[in-house]
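The following block was generated as part of the benchmark described in Methods. Ligand: KG4.
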Amino acid sequence: MTLKNDQYILGIETSCDETAVAIVKNGKEIIANVVASQIESHKRFGGVVPEIASRHHVEQVTIVLEEAFTQANLTIDDIDAIAVTEGPGLVGALLIGVNAAKALALCHNKPLVGVHHIAGHIYANQFVTEMTFPLLALVVSGGHTELIYMKEHASFDVIGETLDDAAGEAYDKVARTLNLPYPGGPHIDRLAHEGEATINLPRAWLGEGSFNFSFSGLKSAVINTLHNAEQRGETIDPKNLAASFQASVIEVLVKKTYDAAQQYNVKQVLLAGGVAANKGLRAALTDAFQNSDIELVIPPLSLCTDNAAMIASVGTVLYNKGVRGDMTMNGQPGLDL
Ligand code: KG4
Ligand code: ZN
């Protein structure tokens, strides 16, 4: 038996290579959080293969749904609304989650709420503490690098974004050059802590006052450094190269986030996305905001990479604002925030 005044939102996330279902109580409490990762299946290809991702989602989605209800000890009757990632992401992958959500909503007469994946990453912070507006979110994932200003709930103003590669993408590409397994971010992070930033690599500031990012020049510089050394018959310590690459990424991310937080006079800074799991970034941001009035919020590691609790968290806010999806909902690979 559940109390009527408690609100339970079911979240479904299938935008990339994790099939995830979660149940969140009253927007704050995670009752179930199940993530089936496909990383092992994509590893040998060095990245996510969309066809394989879709097939895994089809196989996994009902199993993961059942597991979430078992974990929560609830049934679909207890659920107030179904929130699902509508986009952005791989279209074939998104469609599996969207169709599962639509089928559940239709069969059980439940409200449906479409969620933007990046909004989800930001709202993972709601499980740490209450959001205080205005705030600034630094979103760093495999597909996105953005500084987002929020004056209130569900209001997203992108004040800076990457002009080329996302931070996570740069990590994964550099890792690949160093023959590290996919996804490379955690491996570079580990190596970086064992090495020293002895190699001079560029920082893309993109002009005074710009909150945009660029990582493709840095990625090329890493590749050139390796190739040039190879041609000269020298070897470069991958630990030092990883440390130098990470130092460049972190310096730019932290400085731009700090400057934007000051300029926009925010009360909170939220870190979000898969790269938020980076130990160096977490430590450098903590240092930067240590003596400031701005509260820095960093999600626990388990909520940094893709999960459905974050989708249910935004879903709760949108549902309570009256946002509703219908049976025309579709996977939208290029959905704007
Ligand atoms: O948010 P996410 O799970 O998926 C997307 O929405 O893209 O982010 C995945 C990205 C990958 O590029 C992965 O290499 C990166 O997050 N990542 C990291 C770390 N852990 C995951 N990058 C740097 N350091 C880490 N510790
Ligand atoms: Zn993500």
